[in-house]
Design goal:
single chain; 128 residues; mainly alpha; 3 domains; two-stranded antiparallel sheet; 7 helices; 2 strands; flat
């Protein structure tokens, strides 16, 4: 808004074109980041620091470490933040690292089994 007003565009026209109301815009301008969002960012930063130092521990240990660093939170909050950011313990989640042609391993076997069944049903001279 400020840049457009500085360029000589009338503010009322800008609000109308962008479909904005004045009061929410000025409320946002006074405080662009909500307190809850800022607090969650601090908590996530503390959890990430603890996870980077000890990636083998789960969310409960990370929550204890974050509390020790001054970012108080419940274990459930720590779990939610870790889940949303996919910060898992290196021992806790099995990773599907074996991909064959962009498919999971089980999908490839199912494809070949379906082809074998289709070949058994169709005669050899019939087109596929």
């Amino acid at each position: 808004m400020k840049e457009l007003a500085g360029d000589g565009v009338p503010v009322t026209v800008t609000y109308r074109v962008l479909k904005l109301a004045r009061q929410p815009y000025y409320r946002w301008l006074g405080k662009p980041v909500a307190d809850a969002v800022l607090e969650e960012a601090y908590r996530a930063n503390a959890l990430f620091d603890a996870h980077r130092d000890d990636p083998e521990f789960g969310y409960r240990f990370l929550a204890d470490e974050a509390r020790g660093a001054g970012a108080g939170m419940a274990d459930r909050t720590a779990w939610r933040i870790c889940r949303d950011n996919r910060w898992w313990s290196v021992f806790g989640k099995k990773r599907i690292a074996q991909l064959v042609g962009g498919c999971e391993v089980g999908q490839v076997e199912r494809y070949y089994l379906a082809r074998v069944d289709a070949d058994a049903i169709a005669p050899a001279s019939a087109p596929r």
